[in-house]
Structures are given as structure tokens and as C-alpha cells.
């Protein structure tokens, strides 16, 4: 469970939706945004208990948060997510597209199921929530932060489908940044290195020989953690980043 830092007011009243925030990097980002004063919607797909734990962690530290179940691959559920967010806290001004899935295999072994699951969640899900954000006619500024991967720079083997979806996310980020700039909505991406999360633990990566080999290629010498990404998301969502849009920021301990 990510730790809550000292509370401050950087994002006061700036309602944030973080997709896939019940676990891993999303939980770290939701926690950091709340500590910076944003009322946060903790979105998740299946795990009510994990989502409620993140909400409790935030509220016990003095922040505001609600959990909203919605599958980002379904347009109707994304609409309901934004309706619930607006009902709870007002117009959404910060959207973090963190919900993502990954499988690693030689490209020769990629199945249609792997392809559809990753494209649906990582690319289509990101597009749907960005459309819902843009459909709000009562905001005249905002920040969208998409989760990419450092793999879009390094192109590691056995990641063809996953990295392809995130490369597409980078393109959507850069293009939407231009389309939304006249409305004062900035669009950026964070590209993490391999990290210690619920997802990478569940797949047996953390503690494995592959993880050791990966760490050997990370100049700062460790896997990322959910706490590494929260402060970067707070910065990108804040007025301090007012002149940054259409960028993909490597947050990777120097890995490229
Ligand atoms: N971990 C890494 O090494 C790493 C590196 C680079 C980039 N990233 C990116 O960072 C993001 C988070 O990764 P992570 O490892 O922290 O993930 P994780 O620990 O596996 O957690 C994923 C979260 O996303 C939710 N989710 C999955 N599909 C969803 C859907 N269709 N709708 C709504 N929520 C959904 C899950 O909800 P439920 O559990 O309730 O189903 C869970 O809360 C992903 O976009 C990933 O590609 C991760």
C-alpha cells in the first residue's frame, strides 16, 4: 500500500479520475494526487476490497476519495464513471489513464486473445476515457496523463504486443495534445521502467532471474515502485507544468 506524504494544496479542488487505481502504480498515483489536495476517484475493474483499501488510506490521511467500479474498455461504464466522478466532486480536471494489462511472449506466440486484451485495455480504454474527459463542456483547463512504458524506447524482446499498444498510446498522447490545447487541456504521458507492483508480482516477475537481469540494465539500480510515479503525476497535473504538453516523460531510473 503506497504511503501518503505530507498533505499540501497544489491540486486543491481539481477532481481527478485515476483508472486502475486499486493496485500498483495507479494506487501510488491516486494517493499522491489526494495528498496534493485533489478529490480522487479510485477506478478499478474487479477488486472492490483493494479499491476500498486505497480509499481508506487516503481518507484516513485527510484526503477525499471514492471508489468507482468500471471497465474502461466499455463506453457505457466509462460514461457512468465520469458521471459518478462529477456527482461526487464536480467536473473532472485531471485524468490519469493507468489501467493497463501486459503479457510477455515471443512475437511468434502472441495469440489473438493476448492481442485483443492488450489493445482493448491499453489503447481503446485510454481513448474512451479521453473522449469522456473531452466531452465535458464545462471545463476550460485540465490535464490528462497516460501511462506508457520505457519499453517504447528500449523495445525489449518478448514485449511486441504490449509495447505496440503503448507506442500507440504515445501517438494518441501527442496528437490529442494538439487537438485539446485550444481548450487548455494538456496531455502528457509517463513512461515507467519495470516496477514492483501487484501486477508484476502476480506474474512472478518480482524476485525472478529476469528481474535481476532487468535491474542490471537500470542505471539507478532497482525496479521502480508505485511511490516513484505519484510525484511526477502531481507535477504534470499542476500549474507548475503549464507549459508542458504532448510530452512522453521517461520515469525509469535512467533505463532507455
Ligand atoms: N508495473 C510495471 O512494471 C509497469 C512498467 C511500465 C508501465 N506500466 C504501466 O503502468 C500501469 C499500471 O501497471 P501496474 O503494474 O501498476 O498494474 P497492476 O498492479 O496490474 O494493477 C492494474 C490495475 O488496473 C485495473 N484494471 C485492469 N484492467 C482494467 C479495466 N479494463 N478497467 C478498469 N481497471 C482495470 C486493475 O483492476 P482490478 O485488479 O480490480 O481488475 C488494477 O487496479 C499499466 O498501464 C502498465 O502498463 C507498468
From TrEMBL:
Question: What GO MF terms are annotated?
Answer: oxidoreductase activity
In the UniProt record, does the keyword Cell inner membrane occur? no
Kindly state which keywords UniProt assigns to this record, in alphabetical order. Answer: Oxidoreductase
Pfam families for this protein = adh_short_C2
Cite the SUPFAM superfamilies for this sequence.
Answer: NAD(P)-binding Rossmann-fold domains
| Keyword set includes Amino-acid biosynthesis | no
* Similarity remark: Belongs to the short-chain dehydrogenases/reductases (SDR) family.
Protein name (Swiss-Prot/TrEMBL) = Oxidoreductase
Output the lineage of the source organism. Bacteria, Bacillati, Actinomycetota, Actinomycetes, Micromonosporales
Amino acid at each position: 500500500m503506497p504511503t501518503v506524504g505530507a498533505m499540501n494544496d497544489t491540486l486543491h479542488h481539481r477532481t481527478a479520475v485515476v483508472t486502475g487505481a486499486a493496485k500498483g502504480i495507479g494506487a501510488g498515483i491516486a494517493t499522491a494526487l489526494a495528498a496534493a489536495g485533489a478529490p480522487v476517484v479510485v477506478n478499478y475493474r474487479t477488486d472492490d476490497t483493494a479499491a476500498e483499501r486505497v480509499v481508506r488510506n487516503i481518507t484516513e490521511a485527510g484526503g477525499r476519495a471514492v471508489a468507482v467500479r468500471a471497465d474502461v474498455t466499455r463506453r457505457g461504464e466509462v460514461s457512468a464513471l465520469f458521471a459518478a466522478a462529477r456527482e461526487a466532486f464536480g467536473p473532472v480536471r485531471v485524468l490519469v489513464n493507468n489501467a493497463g494489462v501486459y503479457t510477455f511472449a515471443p512475437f511468434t506466440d502472441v495469440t489473438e486473445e493476448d492481442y485483443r486484451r492488450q489493445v482493448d485495455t491499453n489503447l481503446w480504454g485510454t481513448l474512451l476515457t479521453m473522449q469522456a474527459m473531452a466531452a465535458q463542456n464545462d471545463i476550460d483547463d485540465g490535464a490528462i496523463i497516460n501511462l506508457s512504458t520505457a519499453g517504447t524506447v528500449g523495445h525489449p524482446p518478448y514485449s511486441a504486443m504490449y509495447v505496440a499498444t503503448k507506442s500507440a498510446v504515445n501517438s494518441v498522447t501527442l496528437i490529442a495534445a494538439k487537438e485539446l490545447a485550444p481548450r487548455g487541456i494538456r496531455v502528457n504521458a509517463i513512461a515507467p521502467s519495470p516496477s514492483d507492483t501487484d501486477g508484476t508480482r502476480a506474474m512472478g516477475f518480482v524476485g525472478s532471474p529476469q528481474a535481476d537481469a532487468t535491474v542490471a540494465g537500470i542505471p539507478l539500480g532497482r525496479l521502480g515502485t508505485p511511490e516513484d510515479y505519484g510525484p511526477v503525476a502531481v507535477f504534470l497535473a499542476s500549474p507548475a507544468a503549464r507549459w508542458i504538453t504532448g510530452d512522453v516523460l521517461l520515469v525509469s531510473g535512467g533505463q532507455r
